[in-house]
Design goal:
By secondary structure, the chain is an all-alpha fold. The protein has one domain: Na+/H+ antiporter like fold. The chain has 19 helices and two strands. Strands 1-2 form a two-stranded antiparallel ribbon. Helix 6 packs antiparallel against helix 7, helix 7 packs across helix 19 and helix 8 packs across helix 9. The longest helix is centred in the C-terminal third of the chain and has 69 residues. Keywords: Membrane, Transmembrane, Transmembrane helix. InterPro entries: Na+/solute_symporter_sf, Put_Na-Bile_cotransptr. This is Sodium bile acid cotransporter.
């Protein structure tokens, strides 16, 4: 008879299994109670300690974990780039723009703050996030080299695409003139963004790759033994903490109507889930569509499951690290409080995407295990089919030999 497991041990297992979700809740609570600690320009100077330090740790770990040949191969994977970047810069803005115009048509009393709607158009046009994509893809068992390649490409394109694309898509009504006519100087923004890409992304990634190249076996052993990749997940909590601290410190959330807050909270979740489903469908189209060709080109093609996971995390995600500096640089003449309200969709979407992505990590783990079991079953079935004819053939040959022997004996009989 086995003894029942103590209650405290079961609670401890639940906490350990869901530590990231619990950590997000604690980070949000600390941000609400002490917003001046981790806000931009706050006590810990999070614009450097977190947006440089924590992000650098994530990409150092990525450099230590990913083989060079794997990363180089994914950098030349044009189908993957087309799928992710078109989704991020074209499909997401199209969906958000349709929703914004639907709200404008039905909300004549402006119960949904127009700053929120302008913020959503801006959010749709910014590139995919820098750190969480790689961490979530790795946690789900996907191809983190593919995620890393998409992060680098998107954040190099983003500073040049986002500003003009946002102004182009803004509704033409007068209530959006304040954002359309904002004539900010983007020079400082470009300098800050590319400085962060160089110091927080490219440099630690190069250092990690160099260390892995020189001591590949030792690096792989240490990474696996001490589970260094878990540190990257912990760094995400620091990013959520500083994001919400800045949000609460500006009073932007408090200045929005109840309808606007409810809309933003629920729409973020619905949008992220919808975009993830679309990315999955585009990555793994039905076999019937895969037979469609255009000349010698196959129009639809299923990509490997590990790359599919990377697409599903990179396609719907957006970057607060690039989004917030770009927003404030684009609309420098705009009132600070109005800019803070405009930034709410960016801040909340990038936070909620990490929360929802945590559940998709478990969903994709289940999916990959299911594919693996199906593959094993198909291989066993193929072996059985291959073995069966050989067995029947051997039985048939034995019967023929037995018949020939009996006939021979009968012919030799007196």
């Amino acid at each position: 008879m086995t003894l029942a497991e103590p209650v405290w041990k079961r609670i401890a297992k639940i906490i350990i299994a869901q530590w990231l979700i619990i950590g997000i809740g604690i980070a949000c609570l600390l941000a609400y109670l002490f917003p001046n600690v981790a806000k931009h320009g706050g006590i810990i100077r999070s614009e450097y300690s977190v947006l440089y330090g924590a992000v650098a740790v994530v990409f150092l770990i990525s450099g230590l974990s990913i083989p060079q040949e794997k990363l180089i191969r994914q950098l030349f994977n044009w189908r993957l780039h087309l799928l992710v970047q078109v989704t991020s810069f074209l499909f997401v803005p199209a969906v958000v723009l349709a929703v914004v115009h639907a709200i404008l048509a039905g909300d004549k009393d402006a119960r949904i703050d127009r700053a929120v709607l302008a913020g959503y158009i801006f959010t749709a046009c910014i590139p995919t996030t820098i750190a969480s994509n790689v961490v979530m893809t790795r946690s789900a068992g996907g191809d983190d080299a593919a995620a890393l390649a998409e992060v680098l490409i998107a954040n190099l394109l983003g500073p040049f695409v986002t500003a003009g694309w946002t102004v182009t898509l803004l509704p033409k009504s007068k209530e959006f003139d304040v954002w359309r006519d904002g004539d900010g100087d983007l020079t400082a923004m470009y300098r800050d963004v590319f400085k962060q890409l160089g110091l927080a992304v490219l440099l630690p990634l190069a250092v990690g790759q160099l260390v892995r190249y020189l001591w590949s076996k030792q690096t792989a052993l240490i990474m696996q033994k001490y589970k260094i990749a878990k540190i990257g997940s912990a760094c995400l909590l620091l990013m959520i903490w500083t994001t919400f601290s800045s949000c609460f410190a500006t009073g932007a959330l408090q200045g929005l109507t109840t309808e606007s807050i409810i809309f933003v909270t629920l729409f973020n979740i619905a949008l992220y889930v919808f975009l993830t489903i679309i990315c999955f469908a585009l990555s793994r189209p039905p076999q019937g569509l895969c037979r469609i060709t255009f000349g010698r080109w196959q129009v639809f093609k299923q990509i490997p499951p590990v790359e599919t996971i990377a697409v599903c995390f990179c396609g719907p995600a957006k970057s607060t690290a690039l989004g917030i500096p770009l927003l404030y640089a684009m609309w420098t003449p705009v009132d600070l409080f109005l800019k803070a309200k405009t930034s709410v969709p960016v801040l909340l979407y990038t936070t909620e995407q990490m929360f929802v992505a945590h559940f998709f990590v478990h969903a994709f783990r289940w999916w990959t295990r299911r594919l693996e079991k199906r593959r094993e079953w198909e291989e066993e079935a193929a072996e059985d089919r291959q073995y069966a004819p050989e067995t029947l053939s051997e039985v048939g040959q034995t019967e023929v030999k037995s018949t020939n022997v009996r006939e021979s004996h009968a012919g030799n009989a007196p």
